[in-house]
UniProtKB/TrEMBL annotation:
Na(+) binds at residues 59, 66, 321, 353, 418, 421-422. Disulfide bonds join 164-173. This is Transporter. Residues 1-22 are annotated as: Disordered. SUPFAM superfamilies: SNF-like. InterPro entries: Na/ntran_symport, SNS_sf. GO terms for cellular component: neuron projection; plasma membrane. Its main location: membrane.
């Protein structure tokens, strides 16, 4: 059963009937409940114990972004000074919404669609979460397929990106650690500008700007075999198609048997990355130059805080790293016991999440400092974010380490583990939402439905592993689940709870579960602070929007149009659904009265309590 004995004094009606004793291993139900009710509880399932739930939340929220995005944002946006806007949004938006989503799922015991019977006009928020999760499931897993490819390439005596003697290398390829030994000179043209040339191998007078390195060539010409643009998709990269298939197979078997099985999988997928991260941390801080990298990561530059974009990026990072508005937190919370102390759990998980992000910075920038010293370059030229960090900077750094294939394999294994549980928890949120919405058709065939979702997503995802797939990935990353979309839904969600449902009713619901009112700060956030700050950042995102690009490649105009249409599938779902519900709901009152009517809960409160109480008495056969 789901853990947590806190909140035993919560004012929850125990429901009719007494508990009938039964031998170990049998199914126990409360007297007075129908067989159909008991069967539905057993079919949906609950966590075997509290630790399963905690580790699932750890795996869900702590992912690739903690390693490849947060440390770089700190460096880029003022080092330690970036923690000020980051912690501001953690306290004003991240933690309140995290707690709210877990509690909402736990109270109603339903996914991100059916929980909005608490305020039917807001159900569009649930549809938006499902749509965003759908897009995210397609492209986030592409990072896993790249990491798996690099992991398998690392299982060799020599890393293939360590030299320029391969079929994919160009004649201008030079190892970055060997550039200082080249014979180079500078020539002036027309007394206006200088050009630097070098002699390499059998070539002379090569422009230094034309020199390439084996790490970048392995990424572009071997792994991606990237085409000139999105208009030239090329062929499917069969190696990446296979690693993508492997990633989807792993995801399927992590969730196919329900939360009891998933709760056991996360013991490995959530904890093992910490072991690998600690090993890489010990190795990193003992490298020459590590101190310089860590210094650049931490030293505050308070002047950066004057930039509005720094605050915008901090808000987006909080929304992403906390896995908000995707439906996964609601889904994971829905499998809890009714009286689980979700308040304590949420505060603990938010602390672990932010702490992991901060710790990852030491792991990454100790190696970045080492790489800068080895290449005789400033930190600014070797620090990177996103794919640039994972598939360019770190592979370059490990080349100088003894037994480099081992360190490379450990890094990419950590990467796979970090991404895997985030991926399958997001899929779980997507599946739970749809199955709970149509349980009559899908509950009994859940395994087949999960397989169908995975297969469909795999085939759509093949567009990201063609030779032009990187451009498709960048398109989805920039539009389908953009920070603007996440922040917009965060704003709508906080307004729904704080104003339409009402904080008074909401905190009473929480008290029913945990036995006491949460700290008044969260009440203030739900009603005032969170809606205000998220709305402000959302508007700033619209005003300061810049069309995305990949390196120096500019997307055609029609691609940006497609991107905006993808974004609008998420952002417009709540208002469109609310308007549709308003139009189809009969009524003779004023428009305000009709709006309030469809905002009122359609929840049988006693049934909710009895359902959860009976769920606590169900012993589900393993």
């Amino acid at each position: 059963m789901a853990g947590g004995d806190d909140g035993k004094n919560a004012s929850v009606d125990t429901g009719p009937g007494d508990l009938e004793m039964a031998p170990f291993g049998s199914t126990v139900v409360r007297k007075g409940l129908s067989d159909e009710h008991a069967e539905s509880l057993e079919a949906r399932g609950t966590w075997t114990n509290h630790f399963d739930f905690i580790l699932s939340l750890v795996g869900n929220c702590i992912g690739i972004g903690n390693v490849w995005r947060f440390p770089y944002l700190c460096y880029k946006n003022g080092g330690g000074a970036f923690l000020i806007p980051y912690l501001f949004f953690v306290l004003c938006a991240g933690m309140p919404l995290y707690f709210m989503e877990v509690a909402l799922g736990q109270y109603l015991g339903a996914g991100s669609l059916t929980v909005w019977k608490i305020s039917p006009i807001c159900k569009g928020i649930g549809y938006a979460a499902v749509i965003m999760a759908f897009w995210l499931n397609i492209y986030y897993i592409i990072v896993l397929c790249w990491a798996l490819f690099y992991f398998f390439m690392s299982l060799s005596s020599e890393l293939p990106w360590g030299n320029c003697n391969n079929w994919w290398n160009q004649a201008t390829c030079i190892n970055p650690y060997e550039r200082e030994n080249l014979s180079c000179w500078t020539e002036m043209y027309n007394m206006t500008y200088n050009q630097t040339f070098c002699d390499i191998k059998n070539m002379s007078r090569v422009l230094v700007t034309d020199l390439t390195d084996p790490i970048k060539e392995f990424w572009d010409r071997r792994a991606l075999q990237i085409s000139p643009g999105i208009d030239e998709p090329g062929t499917i990269r069969w190696e990446l198609a296979l690693t993508l298939l492997l990633a989807w197979i792993m995801c399927y078997f992590c969730i196919w048997k329900g939360v009891k099985w998933t709760g056991k999988v996360v013991y490995f997928t959530a904890l093992f990355p910490y072991v690998l991260m600690f090993i890489l941390f010990i190795r990193g801080v003992t490298l020459p130059g590590a101190g310089t990298g860590i210094k650049y990561y931490l030293i505050p530059d308070m002047s950066k805080l004057k930039s509005i974009r720094v605050w915008m990026e901090a808000c987006s990072q909080v929304g992403w790293s906390y896995a908000l508005v995707l439906g996964s937190l609601i889904a994971l919370g829905s499998y809890n016991k009714f009286d689980n102390n979700c308040y304590r759990d949420s505060m603990l998980l938010c602390t672990i999440n932010s702490g992991t992000s901060f710790f990852a910075g030491f792991v990454i920038f100790s190696v970045v400092g080492f790489m800068a010293e080895q290449q005789k370059k400033p930190i600014s030229e070797v620090a990177a974010s996103g794919p640039g960090l994972a598939f360019l900077a770190y592979p370059s750094a490990v080349l100088q380490l003894p037994v480099s294939p081992l360190w490379s394999a450990l890094f990419f294994l950590m990467f796979v583990m970090l991404g895997l549980d985030s991926q399958f928890c997001t899929i779980e949120g997507f599946i739970t939402a749809i199955v709970d919405q149509w349980p009559k058709y899908l509950r009994k065939n859940k395994e087949a439905f999960i397989a169908a979702v995975c297969i469909l997503s795999y085939f759509i995802g093949l567009t990201c592993v063609t030779q032009g797939g990187m451009y498709v990935f960048q398109l989805l990353d920039s539009y389908a689940a953009a920070g603007m979309c996440v922040i917009g839904l965060m704003c709508m969600e906080s307004i729904a709870i704080g104003w339409l449902i009402g904080v008074d009713r909401w905190q009473e619901m929480i008290k029913e579960m945990i036995g006491y009112y949460p700290f008044i700060w969260w009440r203030i956030c739900w009603k005032y602070i969170t809606p205000f700050v998220t709305f402000t950042v959302f508007i700033l995102n619209l005003i300061m929007w810049e069309n995305p690009k990949y390196v120096n490649y500019e997307f055609p105009t029609y691609i940006h149009v497609i991107g905006w249409l993808i974004s609008l599938t998420t952002l417009l779902s709540p208002p469109i659904y609310g308007l549709w519900l308003f139009l189809v709901t009969p009524g003779t009152g004023t428009w305000k009265e009709r709006v309030m009517a469809i905002a009122r809960p359609e929840v049988d409160w006693e049934a909710v309590k009895n359902k959860h109480n009976s769920a606590n008495d169900v012993i589900i056969n393993a």
